Amino acid sequence: MTIRLLKGAGRFLVFFWAAGSLTFFLVRTVPGDPLLEILGPNPDTRDVLRLKRSLQLDRPLAAQYAGFILRLAVLDLGESLIDRKPVTATMLRYLPNTLLLAVAAMAFTVPFSLLLGFLSVYRESRFWEALALAFSAVGLAVPVFLIGLLLVLLFALGLGLFPVSGSGGVEFLFLPAVTLSIPLGAFLTRMVRTVLREESQRPYVLLARAKGLSRAQVYRRHILKNAMVPIITLAGMQAGALLSGAIVVESVFSWPGIGTLLVRAVRQRDLPMIQGTVLLMAALYHLLNRLVDLSYPLFDPRIGHDRAR
Amino acid sequence: MIGLAKDNPRCRQGALVLAGLGIALGAAVLAGGIDLGLHMRQRLQSPSAGHLLGTDPLGRDILSCLACGTLVSLAVALAVVALAAAGGLSLGYLAGWHEGRLGSFIMRAADFTLAFPGILLALLVVALWGQGVPRLILALAIGGWAGTARLVRGEVLKIKGQDFILAARGFNASSRHIAMRHMLPLIFPVLLTQAVSGIAAVILAEASLNFLGLGLDPRLPTLGGMIDAGRGYLFDRPGLVLVPGACLALLVAGFLLLAEGFSARAGKVAFEKNSE
Predict the structure, then answer these.
(1) CB spacing of B115 vs A19 below 8 angstroms
(2) pLDDT one-digit tens code per residue, B30-66
């Protein structure tokens, strides 16, 4: 386990360095002069020099890169061009909201799609199957921002139950989390169905039935346990959809998270903030994937057993 | 491949949805003509004989915008998928054929690209390089090639060791001949399936970027941009959001259905690749 953890940490560091370098060099390819956009047209030469020095643009590229990587190592991503505050501190303020949204969406979507996928296979009834298929079709084809607007129309206007946007108590979290959970749930329901159907046709199921176990017992003792690993993998693959969905959903509901911060930074052309938020999102995604990898032995004792000793 | 796909119910449904959407938009536009001009005196009109779906907050004919937005979505998606498929096919093929350093370098690059979630990479590129159709296409294709490359490499590795390839080599066939005549026909069904589901994914990504106001010039009508513009009137004129939304969802659903039908043919699960 320790070796796996260390390896994971090593891969994370390499990825973080590579992603940081990518953003560093991409920012240098920005067409036009970003300094002119910050200072406006015909700026004072002294202002330009001062800004260049504060952004360390007066040094050679190699020195800039070395400085960037060193500061990245201590998670210093510079100052925002707009409010002159450190990017890392601002991001840390917004990060918990995004995590809260993601966790809430997962909390809605995982039990729901497991149950729906399971029932649609186990019950063998037209109704559950049609329900699961319709839900996953709608969730896959309708873009997440439209789902958000539809829910706003339905709930906030029709029923007047939940606030439409902003942040505060639990009631503000409800609509964004449900919105984000629908496309995820659609995908997951589909995957649960595929995996369960595949698993229920394995020879060991026939053996267990021949042995005298009831259908329910076979599902509880064998099929569900074996289906867990592929389902966890597929749920983990959805981490990317979760994060990029969060960018859009946060914007729909003005939820103060990293996505809102990123979109605002792009609109204001706040380069350090863009760089920071993109890096943070990529790092989060990478971490989630590593966590999924690490969780396999919990569900399948065969995985990682020999290396753990 | 296409001939076989006709028998598949999912393919037929998908083709039906797309054809229906195309015919409806085409017929309506032929009847009324396309007018994307701003008529500020005619803002937010209800549907009438002159404007079958009414007008938007800028006084533009919604039906014309819808037709234009659908065309933009389709054109961008086709260009992105063509670019990503061409890049992914050649790089994936190289990586599978030359398994040494070159291959592992290409796969590292693909892994790195896939390590950015969903639209993040496209968002970064658009944010830095600015708006415009060619830039948007490039931005979306940068994230798209890696999945194809991985898929193609896997197929090449599977095919490469088989006897008929060895036989072709024994007959002194050039690598180019083997690639074009022996491997491409076998890779093609899988590639086509992924490309079609990729079109659906790109349409969604493009709409998301335009909804966020970060994709194309807001003066060009796009489906995502129309939904964004209609947001402010959600309660008074829900049609401003619902009409382009329905159009977008039908477009995506059509391609998803097609992809599912193709995947049944190609024996691959297409929607797995379409997760983001």
Answers:
(1) yes
(2) 777 777 777 767 777 777 766 777 777 777 888 888 8
Q: What's the rounded Cα separation, in Å, for the pair B141 and B151?
A: 16
Q: Which amino acid is at B269?
A: V
Minimal Cβ distance to B252: which of A31, A141, A278: A141
Query: Which residues of chain B are within 8 Å of residue A267 when distances are taken between CB atoms?
Result: 213-214
- ipTM above threshold 0.95: no
Sign of the C-alpha dihedral computed for residues B253, B257, B263 and B269 taken in this order: positive
Residues of A in contact with B235 (CB under 8 A): 153, 157
Contact A285 B117 (CB under 8 A): yes
Is A88 touching B (CB cutoff 8 A)? no
CA of A12: which chain B residue's CA is closest?
A: B115
Considering only CA atoms, which of A90, A101, A96, A75 is closest in space to residue A244?
A101
Dihedral sign of CA atoms A165, A169, A170, A173 in order? positive
Q: What is the dihedral of CA B57, B61, B67, B70, to 10 degrees?
A: 0
* A153 touches B at CB < 8 Å: yes
Q: At A226, is the secondary structure helix, strand, or coil?
A: helix
The pLDDT tens digits for A122-161 are 888 889 989 998 998 889 899 999 999 998 888 776 666 6
- Any residues with CB less than 8 A from the CB of B268 and at least 6 apart, and which? B190, B193, B194
Contacts of A257 in chain B (CB under 8 A): none
What's the predicted TM-score (pTM) here? 0.87
